[in-house]
Amino acid sequence: MRVDAITIFPEYLQALDLSLIGKAARDGLISVHRHDLRTWTHDRHRTVDDSPLGGGAGMVMKPEPWAEAFAAVLAAGRAELGADARPLIVFPNPAGRVFRQDLAQEWSAREWIVFACGRYEGIDERVYEHLADEGHEVALVSLGDYVLNGGEVAVLALTEAIVRLVPGVVGNAASLVEESHSDGMLEYPLYTRPARWTDPSGAVREAPEILLSGDHGRIAAWRAERSAERTRQRRPDLWDARG
Ligand code: SAM
After folding, report:
1. Considering the entire predicted model, what is its pTM?
2. Residue ranges of the tRNA methyltransferase TRMD/TRM10-type domain (predicted)?
């Protein structure tokens, strides 16, 4: 999978070099390309924003650098992947569709994703129209119902959620199957050694005995019950929406 990210803060995305995503890149499972939007400005101040037409607070990202950036980034991607390669262009946006695990699963099969990070009040609307008119697949996705300062944090989250589902990225694929949200439910509670732990206040806390029983059938049933109980209590919306 090829991942491009266009941003005015490419250094923000250096975290993609770390941990499992960084290893996936070093192993050749993905390639990550960060681009500074200001590369495609032509004035002394490398301006990417201007005041909103119609008035109002804040600044809006100008369309010209974005159009040039997309032309260059898409050409570079096609040079690597072939002229027929079709990118999915993703704009993190608080007014977009809320990103969920099913979308992460779907997008983990994509060959090429281009992220575009907004800043200020957001990007001139005509950029989306231009890309759609060129026949590109464009998606606006939100991390949740709150507002960040820019799309970079969202790109880190989206990339991690998507790339960890690319086959080979997470060593033990079974660990992806029982996770929260993989089946619309939250994960059961987890325990490790020591089975009997004295916490700093002196209280003795035992792990559930069943987990030490070695009876895999009963353990699976216990976990399924805890998963259902936790989902019902913490996320009644998920519980009500289950198929
Ligand atoms: N004026 C915009 C609005 O009211 O919808 C908010 C702009 S926000 C300050 C700047 C940028 O941060 C957005 O263009 C987007 O890229 C990113 N962003 C903010 N909140 C986000 C969220 N919940 N999910 C994804 N991206 C977000």
Report:
1. 0.95
2. 1-240
